[in-house]
Design brief:
single chain; mainly alpha; 2 domains
Length: about 80
C-alpha cells in the first residue's frame, strides 16, 4: 500500500503546484487598468468558450481559425501602442 501511495501523492502534489504556478503567471501578465481591458476580458472569455465547445463536440480542426480570429480581434483593440 505504501509503495503505491507515496508516488501517487507526489504526482498529485506536482500537478497541483504546476497548476498554481500557471494560474499565478497568467494573472501577472493579464492587462489590469487599460481602456480596453473590459473588452479584452470579454474577447478572451468568448474565445475560451468557443475552444471548449469545439473540443467538446470533437472538432479540434476549427481551433486554429478561432485563434486567428481572436488574434485579429485583440490586435484591433490596440492595447499595445505600436504592437
Amino acid at each position: 500500500m505504501r509503495r503505491v501511495f507515496f508516488p501517487a501523492l507526489a504526482i498529485v502534489t506536482a500537478a497541483v503546484v504546476i497548476g498554481m504556478v500557471t494560474v499565478s503567471i497568467q494573472q501577472v501578465y493579464a492587462p489590469r487598468t487599460c481602456p480596453g481591458c473590459l473588452e479584452f476580458k470579454k474577447l478572451t472569455h468568448e474565445f475560451e468558450k468557443n475552444v471548449i465547445e469545439a473540443a467538446t463536440i470533437g472538432d479540434p480542426n476549427i481551433i486554429p481559425g478561432l485563434l486567428d480570429q481572436y488574434n485579429e480581434d485583440v490586435r484591433a483593440l490596440d492595447l499595445i501602442p505600436g504592437g
